[in-house]
Design goal:
This protein is an alpha/beta fold. It contains eight helices and nine strands. The strands form two sheets. The chain has a seven-stranded parallel beta sheet with strand order 3-2-1-4-5-6-9, sandwiched between helices. Strands 7-8 form a two-stranded parallel ribbon.
Length: 264
């Protein structure tokens, strides 16, 4: 993907202080976009990250700590970004949490939090950002769904429900803005190599007394035919492509990036 194709654009990426969101923020910054980071973490570490990204890519990078469970904080974050940069040209809804349990034991508060962060927050960010995109007749909305937005797995009822909802929301928004120069698409990753997943691998090795290779192949990648993790850099480049002119006719799509998982 050519560098600087997103000069003078601004991208807001929720949940972007680590993992997939950070990888997407870096890719969009490398392509020339100013960046609004959002997410959890140590204040000093986030500031170091912000300054490093700004210096490395030569773009403006700001941070907003909006709680993605709070509608008013989400709306304020979008408004602040619009006041700073004029428009949120690119919105990446990435923030998400997970909890695994049989449905009869699933805590109600965990269910609600997963639905609110993984799905409802997307509604609030899109509602806040879309009017300015319509005014300038250009915008890119990218929702991070999951392979679990297309297929299900046991013990992940809230996550699967939320991610299927993200796919449906993506299609609906795409139809509503189809005659404009705005697109709304979902990226559906399989298992991605992130610090969070690396920690989970270590935990599963201890729990099951298994080797690292056994945990990766028999637990994490059992449904992923490629038998390798998706890298965050791959997802970042998919996001950049969806923001490019080459993808202007891709709208309402759910793009699997999961090594063939959903082909089965």
């Amino acid at each position: 993907m050519a560098d600087n194709i997103l000069d003078d654009r601004t991208a807001l990426i929720t949940g972007s202080t680590s993992g997939i969101g950070l990888g997407m923020a870096r890719a969009l910054a490398e392509a020339g976009a100013n960046i609004v980071l959002n997410g959890l973490g140590d204040t000093q570490e986030i500031e170091s990250l912000r300054a490093e990204m700004a210096g490395r890519y030569g773009v403006e990078v700001i941070y907003d700590g909006a709680n993605m469970l709070e509608q008013e904080e989400i709306s304020k974050m979008v408004r602040a970004a619009q006041e700073k940069f004029g428009c949120v040209d690119i919105l990446v809804n990435n923030a998400g949490i997970q909890y695994v349990s049989a449905i009869e034991d699933f805590p109600e508060d965990k269910w609600q939090a997963i639905i609110d962060i993984n799905l409802v927050s997307n509604f609030h960010t899109i509602k806040a950002a879309l009017p300015a995109m319509k005014t300038q007749n250009w915008g890119r909305i990218i929702n991070l769904a999951s392979a679990h937005g297309l297929v299900a797995s046991p013990y992940k009822s809230a996550y699967v429900a939320a991610k299927h909802g993200v796919v449906g929301l993506t299609k609906t928004v795409a139809l509503e803005i189809a005659e404009s120069q705005i697109t709304c698409n979902a990226i559906c990753p399989g298992y991605v190599r992130t610090p969070l997943v690396e920690g989970q691998i270590t935990d599963q090795m201890k729990i099951h007394n298994m080797s690292r290779e056994q945990v990766i192949n028999d637990i994490f990648l059992v449904a992923q035919p490629s038998k390798r993790f998706v890298e965050v850099e791959e997802l970042g480049q998919v996001a950049v492509f969806l923001c490019s002119s080459a993808a202007k006719s891709i709208n309402g799509a759910s793009l699997p990036v999961e090594g063939g998982w959903t082909a089965k």
